[in-house]
């Protein structure tokens, strides 16, 4: 039995019924990490000893819960107590958090076995994981290509069966886009659904943590563990968490699914479009009513996002000043010099670029013309969705306009890289939930992702719609040809 | 919007980044390009539209002002670049003239 080919749900069931020891499941995953990760570079830290102790605790009956014995990878921008948390940045290269993020606490309490920390674009800023200060993660489907970003390490780990599931974070698409490019399932919850306590902040009104999994059932399972109000996060919603697994198999018969015309524009790879349109045809065959909708402010999403997110980032990253933690320059003349040199040495190019952009957008004389203007367009983007919800129950569209591109292909052109996010940023701006599920492959064998967008706090519908398509196909079961 | 060298240096100072000359030149070009792109927002009709700062309609999330246990001092100092228990050592903040 190859336990690395099993889903989180299957592992949990088998461990709970004592058909297999959690330790055996763990060792299978550690062995696969040893064999495969030297080629993929998905993990920054593998916490072998801690994981073995957790697995042994599950086997001793000391740790139970909905994820008992499930090997989980955690994106390295989520604090894990005593385990290096770097955000893929030199500024935090040696940082060991003194506390666990709430999602990490919830994973532990659910009996999960934490395998280690996965690679990302530095401080979650990027769409290819090439901005990591330490290593480039490669796409398991084609090692000359990027896995997407910023949660590229988590996406690659799940796609390559190094972890049964993983956590990612999504500020402008960073769960959904790498999920699409790596052929896995990735869900960004509604803003406020999952606690951000212990998630290293990039853009506080946009960031959300979510599951990256092999299928929708695992996404529902992991989301049910992660979701819920947290007194440590003042922006977490005081709303009851529904049973995401219960609603999963209800199907789409009689549902109205919106097809937003602006999400099928020029610049879309024809094979991506073909796969997504085939998925839409499947929905029609399953009895859904496909409705043409318009989200007219979609074209302003990137400009809006690349003002709001860097502005918030410039504020959030001000704390990396070399005073209390993180990198401090070895030599400096006075306080200002200490700040400036420490940050210059600690941050990579993309992080600096966004701090500059955000600082500019917020600075005196430019605040109204840039940041405040962007916030107004943000409201229009949200209103587009509000109007659509009067006519449809969910929206289906592509996740990424293109499949995985080659390493280095876009790294000299920041704006070209930003345009990868055109179909994902609108959800973060509006605070809505969205999932990407595999819906096909290009002729070159690269995965294509279908995005399902839902109303605020309606992850049940999002997952149900995604599952209805998933059970008609086997794209999610295909194995990346790594051997 | 064209960003000139002086603006780049001003922003770098605000952002506390000691950029190299090469970085300043690169950011002049890249930031000008990005700001040129985001200028497309100028064409959007925005009269009467309120800014959306936050997606959730939460207000004043408070808790009672009751003391709780906080991080132990050793944990707090463990990641410090220049700890001097119980302080974080830093360069002089107030320059004497």
Question: What can you tell me about this protein's structure?
Answer:
The complex is a heterodimer of chains A (483) and B (97). With 483 residues, chain A is of the alpha/beta class. Chain A has 15 helices and eleven strands. In chain A, strands 1-3-2-4-6-5-10-11-9-7-8 form an eleven-stranded mixed beta sheet, with helices on both faces. In chain A, 64% of the residues are buried. The model of chain A has no long low-confidence stretch (mean pLDDT 97). In chain B, strands 1-2 form a two-stranded antiparallel sheet. In chain B, a hairpin with a 2-residue loop joins strand 1 and strand 2. The longest helix of chain B has 18 residues. Classes of the chains: A alpha/beta (483), B mainly alpha (97). At the A-B interface, helix 9, helix 10, helix 11, helix 12 and helix 13 of A face helix 1 and helix 2 of B.
Topology, element by element:
The complex is a heterodimer of chains A (483) and B (97).
Chain A: H1 8-16, H2 22-40, E1 43-46, H3 48-59, E2 71-75, H4 102-109, E3 113-118, H5 152-159, E4 165-170, H6 176-182, E5 185-188, E6 208-213, H7 216-226, E7 256-260, H8 270-285, E8 289-293, H9 301-316, H10 334-346, H11 349-362, H12 368-388, E9 394-398, H13 414-418, H14 425-430, E10 434-441, E11 447-453, H15 459-470
Parallel strand pairs in A: 2-3, 2-4, 7-8, 7-9
Antiparallel strand pairs in A: 1-3, 4-6, 5-6, 5-10, 9-11, 10-11
Chain B: H1 5-14, H2 21-38, H3 73-77, E1 83-84, E2 87-88
Antiparallel strand pairs in B: 1-2
* Spatial order of the strands forming the largest sheet of chain B: 1-2
Instruction: Let me know the number of strands of chain B.
Output: 2
Helix content of chain B: 25-40%
Adjacency order of strands in the biggest sheet of chain A:
1-3-2-4-6-5-10-11-9-7-8
Basic shape of chain B: flat
What's the quick description here?
Chain A has 483 residues and is an alpha/beta fold. Chain A has 15 helices and eleven strands.
């Amino acid at each position: 039995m190859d336990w690395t080919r099993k889903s989180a749900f299957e592992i949990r069931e088998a461990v709970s019924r004592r058909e297999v020891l959690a330790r055996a499941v763990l060792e299978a995953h550690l062995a696969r990490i040893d064999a495969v990760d030297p080629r993929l570079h998905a993990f920054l830290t593998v916490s072998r000893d801690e994981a073995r102790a957790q697995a042994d605790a599950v086997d001793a009956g000391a740790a139970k819960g909905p994820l008992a014995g499930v090997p989980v990878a955690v994106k390295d921008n989520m604090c894990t107590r005593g385990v290096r948390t770097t955000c893929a940045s030199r500024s935090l290269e040696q940082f060991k958090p003194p506390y666990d993020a709430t999602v990490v606490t919830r994973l532990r309490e659910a009996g999960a076995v934490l395998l280690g920390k996965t690679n990302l674009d530095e401080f979650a800023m990027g769409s290819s994981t090439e901005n990591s200060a330490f290593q480039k993660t490669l796409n398991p489907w084609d090692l000359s290509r990027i896995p997407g970003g910023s949660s590229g390490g988590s996406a690659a780990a799940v796609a390559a069966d190094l972890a049964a599931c993983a956590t990612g974070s999504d500020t402008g698409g960073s769960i959904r886009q790498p999920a699409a490019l790596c052929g896995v399932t990735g869900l960004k919850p509604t803003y406020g659904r999952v606690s951000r306590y212990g998630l290293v902040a990039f853009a506080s009104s946009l960031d959300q943590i979510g599951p990256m999994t092999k299928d929708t059932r695992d996404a529902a399972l992991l989301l049910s563990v992660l979701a819920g109000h947290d007194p440590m996060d003042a922006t977490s919603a005081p709303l009851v968490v529904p049973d995401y697994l219960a609603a999963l198999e209800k199907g789409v018969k009689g549902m109205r699914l919106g097809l937003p015309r602006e999400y099928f524009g020029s610049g879309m790879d024809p094979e991506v479009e073909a796969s997504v349109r085939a998925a839409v045809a499947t929905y029609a065959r399953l009895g859904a009513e496909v409705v043409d909708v318009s989200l007219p402010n979609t074209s302003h999403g990137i400009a809006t996002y690349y003002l709001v997110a860097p502005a918030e980032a410039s504020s959030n990253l001000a704390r990396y000043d070399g005073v209390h933690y993180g990198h401090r320059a070895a030599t400096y003349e006075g306080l200002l010099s200490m700040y400036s040199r420490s940050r210059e040495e600690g941050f990579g190019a993309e992080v600096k670029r966004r701090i500059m952009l955000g600082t500019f957008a917020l600075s005196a004389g430019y605040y109204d013309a840039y940041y405040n203007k962007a916030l107004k367009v943000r409201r229009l983007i949200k209103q587009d969705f509000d109007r659509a919800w009067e006519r449809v129950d969910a929206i289906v569209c592509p996740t990424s306009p293109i499949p995985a591109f080659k390493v280095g292909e876009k790294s000299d052109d920041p704006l070209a890289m930003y345009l990868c996010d055109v179909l994902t940023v609108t959800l973060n701006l509006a605070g809505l939930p969205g999932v990407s599920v595999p819906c096909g492959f290009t002729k070159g064998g690269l995965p294509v992702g279908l995005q399902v967008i839902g109303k605020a706090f309606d992850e049940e519908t999002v997952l149900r719609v995604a599952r209805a398509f998933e059970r008609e196909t086997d794209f999610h079961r295909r194995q990346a040809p790594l051997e | 919007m064209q960003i000139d060298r002086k603006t780049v240096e001003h922003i770098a100072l605000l952002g506390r980044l000691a950029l190299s000359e090469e970085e300043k030149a690169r950011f002049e070009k890249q930031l000008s390009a990005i700001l040129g792109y985001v200028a497309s927002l100028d064409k959007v009709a925005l009269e009467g539209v309120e800014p959306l700062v936050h997606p959730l309609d939460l207000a004043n999330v408070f808790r009672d002002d009751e003391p709780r246990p906080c991080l132990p001092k050793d944990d707090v100092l463990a990641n410090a670049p220049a700890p001097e228990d119980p302080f974080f050592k830093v360069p002089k903040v107030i320059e004497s003239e």
